[in-house]
Every structure is written in C-alpha cells, then in structure tokens.
C-alpha cells in the first residue's frame, strides 16, 4: 500500500481516501490530527460481528467494552483495553459505522513512546474526502476490498514527500 496525492495504491488499484485534518507530518504528536509519514505495517484487523461477517480468518471481533487507550502517560497507551478504563480512550464499538472494520497499524506500537500519537487505523470515512483525526479513511466498499487482501505485515508507505503537501482538510482525489 502506498499513499499518493491521488489515493492509496494497492494491488493495481487506486483507492480514494482521506487523511488527517492536520495533513501528513514527519513528526507525529498525540492530538495533532495528522497522519504520520513513514513505513508502517498492518498488525491487526478488527470488525463488528453484529454488522459484518468475518472479513478474514485473522480478524478479531470488536466486542462491547472494547477500547483503545490514548492517554500518553498510561501503561496501556496506544493499546487495546477493556472498559471500565479511567484513562483517556476511544471506544472501538461505536454507534456510527466508522469502526465497523478497522485495519490496525504498527504506528508507535508495540512499545509506545508517550506523546508520539496513537490509534493510526485504516477505517471507514465519515463521508467522501472528509478528514480524519489522523487515520486513513475509505469508503466502506474500498475498505472491505482492502481487508480481504491485506495480511499481517502488509506494508503501508506514507512517503515523507507528502508531509506538508496534504494540508488542512486534506483528502485525496475522488475516483474519476
């Protein structure tokens, strides 16, 4: 997978996508809303079993109470967690469809450095071209296509050259 100004290239296809509202940055920080440049790897696949069939044999279900810790000083920072959790976190099981299917990346994982950012996922976008909080967003159909073909270890290249080029309200081109 390679992020380009026109979309994400993977297996001969160009998929429209959206990046973080802070654009692409070389120096990711927690809460900056940016997508980190670099070479990342897919390390997990989560799905809502009440909304989707299992997308791949290695996918894990998102259950009630599943969270992702985003409090940089907490021992579970940038790791999955279970409710109740007093530390700052994101609920993985949401009312909207954004996290019905999530490809996890190894950004700042497994040994998270406090403040470097957490939860850089590939997930469904809110609407076409709408920026994320730092993740990479796709249409549901394209995300399902990706999930069916990605495997643990699949590389995701976000070129350093994109840093500063995809700025505020950053989103890459729609399919023609």
Automatic annotation (TrEMBL):
- The protein's superkingdom reads Bacteria
Question: What SUPFAM superfamilies does its record include?
Answer: L,D-transpeptidase catalytic domain-like (SSF141523)
The record's comment on protein family reads: Belongs to the YkuD family.
Residues forming the L,D-TPase catalytic domain are: 1-159
List GO BP terms, alphabetically: cell wall organization; peptidoglycan biosynthetic process; regulation of cell shape
* Listed name of the protein: L,D-transpeptidase catalytic domain
Protease keyword on record: no
């Amino acid at each position: 997978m390679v992020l380009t100004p026109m979309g994400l290239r993977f297996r001969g296809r160009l998929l429209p996508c959206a990046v973080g509202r802070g654009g692409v940055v070389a120096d990711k920080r927690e809460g900056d809303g940016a997508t980190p440049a670099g070479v990342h790897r897919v390390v997990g696949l989560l799905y809502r079993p009440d909304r989707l069939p299992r997308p791949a044999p290695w996918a894990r279900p998102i259950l009630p109470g599943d969270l992702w810790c985003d409090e940089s000083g907490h021992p579970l920072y940038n790791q999955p967690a279970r409710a109740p959790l007093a530390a700052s976190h994101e609920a993985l099981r949401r009312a909207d469809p954004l996290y019905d299917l999530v490809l996890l990346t190894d950004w700042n994982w497994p040994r998270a450095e406090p403040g470097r950012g957490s939860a850089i996922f590939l997930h469904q976008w809110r609407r076409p071209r709408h920026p994320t909080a730092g993740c990479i967003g796709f249409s549901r159909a394209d995300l399902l296509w990706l999930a069916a073909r990605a495997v643990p270890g699949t590389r995701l290249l976000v070129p350093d050259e994109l840093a500063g080029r995809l700025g505020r309200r950053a989103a890459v081109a729609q399919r023609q």
